[in-house]
Amino acid sequence: MKPPLLLIGHGTHDETGVAEFGRFVHRLRCRLDGLPAEVSGGFITNARPPLGESIASLIARGHHHMVAVPLSLTGDRRALGDVPGTMALEQERHPTLEYDLGRSLGPDPRVLRLLAERLADARAEMPRLVTDEPPADIAPGETAVVLVGHGSTDPAVNAEVHRVSRLFWETHVPDLLTVETAYVSHARPGVPGGLERCRRLGAKRVIVLPYVLFAGGVLERIWAQALAYGANHEGLDIRCAEVIGDCEGLADVVIDRYEEALAGSGESSVSALHRVHSAVPCVVPAADGGAVRGPWRGAGLAAGPSDEETDLDADLDAELDVELDAELDADLDAELDVELDAELDADLDAEFEADLESEFEADPGTLPGTHPSAV
Known about the structure:
Layout: E1 5-9, H1 15-32, E2 39-43, H2 51-60, E3 65-70, H3 77-80, H4 83-93, E4 98-101, H5 109-124, E5 143-149, H6 155-172, E6 178-183, H7 191-200, E7 205-210, H8 217-231, E8 237-240, H9 248-262, E9 276-277, E10 282-285, E11 291-294, H10 307-362
Parallel strand pairs: 1-2, 1-3, 3-4, 5-6, 5-7, 7-8
Antiparallel strand pairs: 4-9, 10-11
């Protein structure tokens, strides 16, 4: 029998997200039943079942080696929590516990295909977020996408979302006007900024595409921001796609992460070792490319943010959003001025050349390259 698969979620106060996580765990139980391999899942914080409870249940059934796969598209340590630290605390409680840690899920080509499916559904079926009737025929070249990630204080994580946007545009929707990147919080532009950029680039329809696994509070924030923007831009057809969600395609990606971790080729976003035992120190990549050696264990490691820290994060997010919106408006105005200046210069050059040719044909004595008013 193969080691069990342990799915790790960050946790949410939203019951919709918790329920979808539970359905996904059940789907994987059905998929891996023939291996055979058990499947369990838990949250680091803010939701049930807690990760420690799921681990204790597996150990009670005789499983002391398991494969942990964080359900994360970017591997953002701040968003997901300290997985190695949390697992180290569990190893303090269960000295026989050892585990392999799988890679994050994105940007897998199959994840991009799932995004393309959600986008196609939104283009065909989802209702507009504005009431005014848009032009009857909107060409692909007049349609834009805003791919929205969670946002992070880690620039590398935000850059990864930008990379996904570019990959998605070039591999799945090259005929569309653009695929812009936006974030829910912690980074700019926000959803309104992404929509505004698409509008200024000439889009008549913009589809907001969440780069999010499951429904819940994050999706509601994305929709709310898009709806608020649409209320002030009634001539723009704005649609919002669904999250990736519980589906067979996502299960395929998780199973591959499980298999590669078992084979020793998994690569954790937070730890360089794939099998971590309480008696063995963990080697973690350092910023300079070296390694920091030391056990992920000890009383000082927290299993995740407290409720007070979560509330503080929410307050800081609100303040940051206000500041970033002001900076975004200034940046967009500057970018638009440059673009408009370039377009105006091109138009004036074309008009001048046309006038010059017309004058020269009417009066051959006019010197080529000289404006008629100077002759």
